[in-house]
């Protein structure tokens, strides 16, 4: 029942290589295709209306091939990798009821040889020899395949990729091995709370609904039970592929150094032979959570020592109204972290550390609005009170009514983020586009998730109408429910107890009261208005030192590649005290998390306005990083440093965050084996490292007084190394350095 989305993933990565003869063959291949362009493309539709960011230097073109496949071409002469992604609009909700995991099994088997390239290792070998890698994932309604490769070998890789969707072999000899591979994936996930909670949520859906299905599959569902029932899994796999893998439900995205015309040639010749079976994709408008599945509460036992609360509301899917964004509007307000927010009040009461609001969004016909709360020790004893507070916030939103200024501010921020969007990696680009082709028209395939143009208060009011006590599902996660649990989920063995919520509790939640401490957020003071580029200094190929003394060394490089109104600032506070022993390591960590916790409400507005910031502890001290729009970075940095040099420890928050830290250290024992291996390898390869066991033992000495004394020593004995890069010239960089050094010097005598 917990509001998490999980994808079934199959990943393979490869090492780079190079073969000149293959490169020459690929070039001849491309040349031959150019000769055939006109003969292939008579029935194709071209879409040259794709809206892109003003700062985006890539070129885009949409195609609808004669077989109905939708394609977006991305030409980027500067890319270091070429990539492609195919999204097939079918997932595990289309699995036959007697074969859970068949869509995922199909994803595995598809990679293993085609009629044109029958060697089952040909694709992976080609990629591994030419700097590439591949991946695939299966979700509720989609299966995605993608790869990247060194650009000169893109035609050969794309040819091999295309054949998976034309004539795959599905070799019978590979069946048993891939069933074992699927089973291994499932075994790996058995100890993952995220997978366990997600399947439990699905398992509690309406009986017979396809949302309940077990999407990963395992040896039991794909081998043992089918044999007992006389089902030939490979035959069923062929039927599944034949039924659903059709060009008209496939969306392809490719990116390469080639021109749009050259990419079009490649795609037309390679993918026009994918058969169009005119498949009609199922639309699941029947909601999995109806009258019998709401006003329920379940108590879930986790693997790790977690304390979480999920408050879920079944709602329709509002994606068709993406330009009005009613879900965006409510997610923005309910998940807000500033003054007057739900999170602010819960933190004041000491009941939670974090809160988020949003929708699952993984099935087109229905949706679930989820409010997730990370609980404190005290908070898990006040579940009904927390839910009551949530309804008080919702009541406040109803009373205030939809606010045009909130919508306009959010729309302004989204437009700004789209205008100055950072360049994404080739694989991220094609993955995103291949999915968005199923969600948006061609013109909005890049812009759609940023496009808020239609003010529809009626839709906001309608959506609020679903957030009612008689339409709620509550899930509480905690080790304390071990003795209460009386059920086990079928596939993961998650222990839980499910019960109806008492009518008296529903009545209390429905009283319509408004809490005076809850209110709409203030207008965002961090929204930048100056997007001009800084005056140019003399260009340098590499960063240069602009200040150096006993206390500080400052590096700087003005951006000469992207020319965006953004900058990245990094200050490394170096001190031998920070990692001197396990206690000091813990003290540095506690200072960092308490400092970020204290700055949360103020910094949240900056984050919404595109100012990212982070403070982390390292073996050498602490690192402060700020990135994003440079207009108000100095103001933000001043606030951070003022708070840092005058920081006072809040005893209540100290107790809460110390307990959370200790729990995190203990939870390491419940991590998966590969995570243990990765951790201990890093410990062995480090010159010096404190183990989690040593850190845990040292937490006994953590007190408020010890921390306050340590902070004074830490800030007074450090050297600062800084680097400023982006839309900042030398003078501006020196101002930022002075902002930090002056405050340290004046306050702690550095």
TrEMBL record:
Keywords: Hydrolase, Metal-binding, Metalloprotease, Protease, Zinc. Residues 70-205 form the Peptidase M16 N-terminal domain. One of its GO terms (molecular function) is metal ion binding. Coiled coil: none annotated. Its EC number is 3.4.24.56. GO terms for biological process: peptide catabolic process; proteolysis involved in protein catabolic process. Residues 234-412 form the Peptidase M16 C-terminal domain. One of its GO terms (cellular component) is cytosol. It catalyses: Degradation of insulin, glucagon and other polypeptides. No action on proteins. InterPro entries: Metalloenz_LuxS/M16, Pept_M16_N, Pept_M16_Zn_BS, Peptidase_M16, Peptidase_M16_C, Peptidase_M16_M. SUPFAM superfamilies: LuxS/MPP-like metallohydrolase. Residues 418-698 form the Peptidase M16 middle/third domain. It comes from the Eukaryota. Belongs to the peptidase M16 family. PANTHER family: INSULIN-DEGRADING ENZYME-RELATED (PTHR43690:SF18), NARDILYSIN (PTHR43690). This is Insulin-degrading enzyme.
């Amino acid at each position: 029942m917990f509001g998490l989305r999980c994808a079934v993933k199959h990943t393979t990565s490869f090492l780079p290589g190079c073969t000149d003869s293959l490169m020459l063959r690929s070039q001849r291949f491309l040349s031959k295709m150019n000769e055939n362009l006109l003969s292939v493309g008579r029935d194709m539709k071209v879409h040259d209306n794709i809206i892109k960011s003003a700062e985006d230097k890539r070129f885009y073109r949409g195609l609808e091939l004669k077989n109905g496949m939708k394609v977006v071409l991305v030409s980027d002469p500067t890319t270091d990798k070429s990539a492609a992604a195919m999204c097939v609009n079918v997932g595990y909700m289309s699995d036959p009821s007697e074969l859970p995991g068949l869509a995922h099994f199909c994803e595995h088997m598809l990679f293993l040889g085609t009629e044109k390239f029958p060697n089952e290792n040909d694709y992976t070998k080609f990629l591994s020899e030419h700097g590439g890698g591949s991946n695939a994932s299966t979700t509720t309604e989609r299966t995605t395949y993608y790869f990247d490769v060194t650009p000169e070998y893109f035609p050969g890789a794309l040819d091999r990729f295309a054949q998976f969707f034309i004539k795959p072999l599905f070799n019978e000899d590979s069946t048993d091995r891939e069933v074992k591979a699927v089973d291994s994936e499932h075994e790996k996930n058995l100890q993952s709370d995220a997978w366990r909670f997600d399947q439990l949520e699905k398992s509690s859906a309406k009986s017979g609904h396809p949302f309940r299905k077990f999407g990963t599959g395992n040896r039991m569902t794909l081998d043992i039970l089918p044999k007992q029932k006389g089902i030939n899994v490979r035959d069923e796999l062929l039927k599944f592929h034949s039924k659903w893998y059709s060009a008209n439900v496939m969306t392809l995205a490719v990116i390469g150094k080639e021109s749009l015309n050259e990419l079009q040639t490649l795609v037309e010749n390679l993918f026009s032979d994918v058969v169009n079976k005119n498949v009609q994709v199922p639309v699941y408008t029947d909601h999995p959570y109806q009258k019998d599945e709401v006003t329920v509460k379940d108590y879930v036992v986790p693997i790790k020592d977690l304390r979480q609360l999920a408050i879920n509301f079944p709602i329709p899917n509002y994606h068709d109204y993406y330009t009005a964004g009613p879900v965006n509007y409510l997610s923005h307000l309910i998940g807000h972290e500033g003054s007057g927010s739900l999170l602010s009040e819960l933190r004041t009461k000491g009941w939670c550390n974090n809160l988020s609001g949003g929708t699952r969004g993984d099935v087109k016909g229905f949706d679930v609005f989820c409010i997730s709360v990370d609980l404190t020790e005290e908070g898990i004893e006040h579940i009904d009170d927390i839910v009551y507070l949530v309804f008080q916030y919702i009541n406040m939103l109803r009373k205030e009514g939809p606010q045009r200024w909130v919508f306009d501010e959010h729309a302004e921020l989204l437009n700004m983020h789209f205008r100055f969007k950072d360049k994404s990696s080739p694989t991220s680009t094609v993955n995103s586009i291949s999915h968005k082709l199923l969600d948006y028209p061609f013109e909005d395939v890049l812009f759609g998730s940023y496009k808020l143009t239609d003010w529809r208060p009626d839709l906001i009011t309608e959506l609020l109408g679903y957030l009612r006590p008689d339409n709620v599902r509550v899930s509480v996660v905690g080790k304390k429910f071990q003795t209460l649990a009386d059920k086990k989920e079928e596939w993961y063995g998650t222990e839980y107890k499910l019960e109806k919520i008492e009518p008296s509790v529903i009545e209390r939640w429905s009283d319509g009261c408004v809490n005076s401490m809850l209110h709409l957020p203030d207008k965002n003071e961090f929204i930048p208005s100056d997007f001009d580029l800084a005056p140019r200094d003399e260009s340098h190929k590499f960063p240069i030192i602009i200040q150096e003394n006993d206390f500080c060394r400052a590096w700087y490089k003005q951006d000469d590649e992207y020319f965006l109104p953004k900058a990245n600032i990094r200050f490394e506070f170096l001190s031998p005290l920070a990692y001197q022993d396990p206690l000091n390591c813990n003290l540095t960590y506690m200072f960092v998390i308490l400092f970020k916790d204290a700055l949360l409400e103020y910094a949240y507005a900056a984050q919404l306005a595109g100012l990212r910031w982070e403070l982390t502890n390292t073996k050498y001290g602490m690192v402060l990083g700020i990135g994003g729009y440079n207009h108000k970075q100095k103001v933000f940095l001043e606030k951070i440093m003022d708070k840092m040099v005058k920081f006072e420890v809040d005893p209540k928050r100290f107790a809460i965050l110390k307990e959370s830290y200790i729990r995190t250290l203990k939870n390491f024992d419940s991590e998966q084996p590969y995570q243990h291996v990765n951790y201990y390898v890093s410990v062995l390869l480090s010159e010096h490292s404190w183990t989690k066991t040593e850190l845990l033992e040292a937490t006994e000495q953590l007190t408020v007084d010890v921390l306050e004394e340590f902070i004074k020593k830490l800030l007074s004995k450090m050297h600062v190394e800084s680097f400023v890069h982006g839309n900042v010239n030398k003078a501006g960089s020196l101002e930022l350095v002075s902002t930090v050094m002056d405050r340290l010097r004046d306050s702690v005598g550095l």
